[in-house]
């Protein structure tokens, strides 16, 4: 029986084979190497969006040798996700109640050919990557993007009508319901008792503090705001992935970013902690904590599902990931910092268990 | 003194006008009894300051009368009303001004709303002008924005001193208005 990885690889090869002549006719050629379809890509399924199967390919426009990114799908859910993403992308330019506008790469083509929905946009270089930049610059860029997002606050009846028309919306009760689902799933999959208890305690904490989540709902938020989903061009952030933008708690995007930085750049995480302490209200800081807890529950849930779907070293790696993020959850819940040795021990294990393809995929990604 | 502040914007709303109102309420509450009436839901709290909210989610024809009736009720417990500019406050305050003798001070905290009213003209401008004309005074000055304390940079000590000074001047001016008018 074919493994999930084999099924994915077959899907990728068939899609590329079918797509190449269609693209050529339209004036585009595909690169020989496609970094965004290898490694652990076969396991990835966004937990925050509609999760359709889609490929992100790199290519060139023949006429002017311009590099392009091609998002493509021939499956119902994938096509629907591409359509949604495009709708959100256009709606972002039309939010009248936003203080700032949002940058996106230029759209070059959108259409359906021979059953494939294709969205082609200009390629934006990722050099230097976000994490290669000085930490002060990283902080300024991220803060500016968060301020841009929180500047779009759907408060009035008319704002909310607009938001509902173009974006998904998540309210305080929805976060609690989702987290209940994570806990239930963890129980069904018999994770270690102490981690399960930690998830239960976190759920209770979220329920008790639901008002602090509700206070900051109705804000535009990019729920997957991490370096591989944006590019920095001339000191401005360009969003690459629009499928994770919705109206929800304003700290949902912050939370994802800071949880990511706990692992990848703790100095930046610490910088944001200082910023929040010195410049934002107690309620805001608490809302951010609650959202970080929520997102950590979500990532643990994600890796439980990934562990189930993987084998060999990758299964072991996913197991390690569950307990690493569990450790981060415990620290955030108790207002503690993750210890350096905890982070380093995990990174060591991760690097030993990651496949060479995944290591290649990660190169220059963040 | 008992002070009622009426404002269209209040945190968790973003922007200078919302932050100004919260800071004003906080600073005034150190020596006065302060109540805040605002549009919104679940405001950020200040110890010792009572807040009243009118949901922005109501359609306009419901939220304006609601705000007006709250104002009418709360003005009885106040010696002075500080109203922030913006049509959603200007209109109810305009009606209220015919029913109360309590002094009203309008503060132009939202410059964008003010400039928009002036530029657009018509009803929006007339509402603003009529509301301002019913006030004891209109205060266009706003203290400078609080400088942000940022990581990886030195503390903005000098800017912070200027910020404190601008608030001191602002509060002195306001207190003077409470006592002596213009």
How many structural domains in the coordinates of chain A?
A: 2
Q: Quaternary status of these chains? A: heterodimer
| Class per helix and strand makeup of chain B | alpha/beta
Domains of chain B (count): 1
CATH classification class of the largest domain in chain A:
Alpha Beta
Q: What would CATH call the architecture of chain B?
A: 3-Layer(aba) Sandwich
CATH superfamily of chain B: Glycogen Phosphorylase B
Low-confidence stretches of chain B: none
Helix content of chain A: 55-70%
Give the overall shape of chain B, derived from the CA principal axes: globular
- CATH classification class of chain B: Alpha Beta
Calculate the mean pLDDT score of chain B and round it. 95
What radius of gyration of chain A results from the CA coordinates? 20 Å
Describe this structure in words.
The complex is a heterodimer of chains A (366) and B (182). With 366 residues, chain A is an alpha+beta fold. Chain A has 2 domains: 119 residues, Phosphorylase Kinase, domain 1, CATH 3.30.200.20; 227 residues, Alpha-Beta Complex (Aminoglycoside 3'-phosphotransferase, Chain: A, domain 2), CATH 3.90.1200.10. Helices cover 55% and strands 14% of the residues of chain A. In chain A, the strands form 3 sheets. Chain A has a 5-stranded antiparallel beta sheet. A 3-stranded mixed beta sheet of chain A has the order 6-10-7, with helices on both faces. A two-stranded antiparallel sheet of chain A has the order 8-9. In chain A, helix 5 packs antiparallel against helix 6 and helix 11 runs antiparallel to helix 12. The mean pLDDT of chain A is 92. By secondary structure, chain B is an alpha/beta fold. Chain B is 47% helix and 16% strand. In chain B, strands 3-2-1-4-5-6 form a 6-stranded parallel beta sheet, sandwiched between helices. In chain B, strand 4, helix 3 and strand 5 form a beta-alpha-beta unit. In chain B, helix 2 packs across helix 3, helix 3 crosses helix 5 and helix 4 packs across helix 5. The radius of gyration of chain B is 16 Å and the shape is globular. Chain B starts with a strand and ends with a helix.
